[in-house]
Specification:
A hairpin with a 6-residue loop joins strand 5 and strand 6. This protein has three domains: 59 residues, Arc Repressor Mutant, subunit A, CATH 1.10.10.10; 65 residues, Orthogonal Bundle (Arc Repressor Mutant, subunit A); 74 residues, SH3 type barrels. The protein is 40% helix and 17% strand. Helix 1 crosses helix 4 and helix 4 packs across helix 5. The protein has 218 residues and is of the alpha+beta class. The strands form two sheets. It has a six-stranded antiparallel beta sheet. Strands 1-2 form a two-stranded antiparallel ribbon.
């Protein structure tokens, strides 16, 4: 079954919201898509007719098995294109999201299979997000955000939750990227900020908000 670009955007948004909330509501999706609740309701009716979403009164809606499969397909393409743009074309990690959002709607499965093979079948994109394989399976790793990393333990940055251009630009300023090794020297109870040390660079303090969006493996 084919879907419009708008439908694919909704399906992907619902999938990502389901990762962080038990109940995906019309108002929540409306805020995520930056559109009117009435437009969301109309789209949900279309997706329900195509058996992409389930709906239960007072319990919100969720993707069906078919909906999950479609979402993972779109996400797979998005993250493969981000990997390609950063690792093969030299884009910065804060420059690729909008471009990948256009490329994720390409319908050729053969192109995506060849792209995946060309890139060496990567498991994670430039922001540390897992790339679903051709069967929709996702590799998982045990990670924790900087606010939960033990003091003086060497940790390696594995992913970034908030991937806005502003956040990634700030991380670039602190020279923090995927694979960066660092230590938490101190936590400040006053505002939750943390002092970190990266290699030979001087220690620096980052806010609680930034710390909670940077995930690491120990």
């Amino acid at each position: 079954m084919t879907h419009t670009i708008t439908e694919e955007n909704y399906i992907k948004a619902i999938y990502l919201l389901q990762l962080t909330t038990d109940k995906v509501s019309t108002s929540l999706l409306s805020a995520e898509m930056n559109t009117k609740p009435a437009s969301v309701t109309d789209m949900l009716k279309k997706l329900r007719a195509k058996r992409i979403v389930h709906y239960q009164r007072y319990k919100g809606f969720s993707l069906t098995e078919s909906g999950n499969k479609k979402a993972l397909s779109v996400i797979r393409k998005h993250r493969l294109w981000e990997y390609f743009l950063v690792n093969k074309l030299g884009f910065e990690w804060d420059e690729v999201h909008k471009v990948a959002e256009e490329l994720e709607h390409i319908t050729s499965n053969e192109l995506i299979t060849r792209l995946d093979n060309f890139l060496g079948n990567p498991s994670f994109d430039p922001h540390g997000d897992p790339i679903p394989d051709q069967h929709g399976k996702i590799k998982k790793i045990k990670q924790a955000n900087l606010s939960a990393i033990p003091l003086k333990k060497t940790a390696s940055v594995s992913s970034v939750k908030n991937q806005s251009e502003e956040m990634l630009e700030m991380l670039n300023h602190f020279q923090i990227g995927i694979g960066t090794k660092l230590k938490i020297l101190r936590r400040f109870e006053f505002d939750g900020s943390v002092e970190i040390k990266i290699d030979r660079h001087p220690a620096t303090i980052i806010s609680k908000q930034v710390a909670q969006n940077v995930y690491c493996i120990i």
